[in-house]
Amino acid sequence: MTIFSIFTLCGGLAFFLYGMQVLSAGLEKIADGKLEKLLREMTSNPAKGFALGAVITIAIQSSSALTVMLVGLVNSGIMELGQTISVVMGANVGTTLTAWILSLSGISSDNIFLQMLKPANFSPLFALGGVCMMMISKNNRKKSVGSVLVGFAILMFGMILMSDAMSPLAKSPEFSSILTVFTNPLLGVLVGAVFTGIIQSSAAAVGILQALSLTGLVSYGISVPLIMGMNVGTCVTALISSIGVNTNAKRVAVTHIICNVMGVIICLPIFLAINYFLNLNLNDKVVNPVGIAVCHTIFNVATTIFLFPFIKQIEKFAKTVVKEKSDKDSKTEVFLDERILLSPAFAISECNHHAVSMADMTEDILIESIKLLKKYDEAKAEYIFNSETKIDNYEDKLGTFLVKLSGKELTESDNNQVSKLLHTLSDFERISDHAVTITFVAKEMHEKNMKFSKEAMAELDVLTNALTEILSLTVSAFETDDSITATDIEPLEQVIDGLVLEIKNRHIERLQNGACTIDLGFMLSDLLNCYQRVSDHCSNIAACVIQMKYSQLDMHNYLNSIKTGENEHFAKEFEKFQEKYTLDIETNVK
Q1: Is 336 a member of any domain?
Q2: Separation CA 103–CA 98 (nearest Å)
Q3: Are 267 and 249 found together in one domain?
Q4: Residue 127's closest CA among 96, 139, 135, 21?
Q5: Domain coverage including residue 350
Q6: Are 494 and 573 in contact (CB under 8 A)?
Q7: How far does Cα 339 stand from its chain's mean position?
Q8: Which residues contact 494 (CB under 8 A, 6 or more apart)?
Q9: Distance between first and last Cα of the chain
Q10: In-domain check, residue 308
């Protein structure tokens, strides 16, 4: 083995890791966030959590990445510690699929059909087909499938390079003597853990071991302790990610270590006892890639079977190992932990979840602020002020997170969702500002013991009803991406503009007749401006929902068609809302 063989080995490892990354990214895009959306619903049940952990790991091809994401979810307060343990166990089993795929490289047969199962033979076809799909197809899903095929081909090319680099070792007596050192099982576990910790990928470590097994020098007695150590070494990634997080998030990394270390403590003595008492002489029996995949699977499945009934005890042990520093530390939650950026689809789902909370809170405080005009309540006013501060915080942190998320490789639908959120957050925040302004007007009227006339209140009631409906339609359209509902918002906004103008004209008449004071006039003007601005922001949000739904839609032409009366739907809805919200004082004054 020469220095160039080492270069080839390093290059093969690089291709292997890069291919796995491309494969993982493509699979996640195909999943389109569906797996991640199930995470919150399914982790309430340990069995479902285990299944989901296995499925997600198969989809993203990395148990380490899933564990890091779990650390971020717990740190953000999205998940509880107990929910993650079964998911971690599922991830350990899910990661064994990679070894089975790589084991196909050991197929040797003259049968053409069996030969086609060998990755070295079919992966070039995958690469060709994948590149064609990526270059020719305009469908993003097909492009993602293409990237999966290319990623797999690159991964297998790396595997072939590593196998070729190691093939000279079969004739090296020095290497054979080195391998005899690894017949010490504890040393094998240690080396496997350290090596995997360095490259931070148990799948890659197992792949290298499978490539090494093709030399015919690796025995079961050597490979099994190495595989166990590799499972422990993969915990390093989660351990590093737990730096700087809250106590519960640290415990997620600890539970990962506990599960894998306990697996070694349980399974290694059983393996040695079976080998000794049954006189299997596993140190002399050569292992092949399939045998390594079998050992990898048996170890992870056996570990899960042993530990699954003790999930509650593992959680308690993790809490004993990582103790609470203080009450403040235990309650600290990060708004959105950047670790979940490892899965952009899930990160978008969580951003949307927070944006929905922000929209609901905005609608709530605006309605509450309007109620204060009739009956002022200091506690309600304080609630509005505090909620508006929270909404400001939502916009600031969510906007910053979305900007970082937009730099990731996203599908077209995910990219549209990010754009929608970035465009609408400021509108919801401005609506909350108007809720505060309305509250201040209500407070001033209460302190000065001032009231609007019956006519003014009746007019405001009509306007309030229209504003309440447009806000409800807007929040509903935003939360459900309902472009049909969104098209009803612009005609109602035009009706509200007309109502505001008419109320201002009537107010001027009352001022001229001495039926209203100048001070009340200023307050009414502030309220009308707020109402009109709120409806404008609702219109902006609706336009964004429509444009995101129909990405090719020219909003300028769409709005022009509305203003010139060419849009039949607008004309019909405008007439309906105009009849519904009329300033008929005789009807509305009671």
Answers
A1: no
A2: 9
A3: yes
A4: 135
A5: 343-449
A6: no
A7: 9
A8: 574
A9: 98
A10: yes
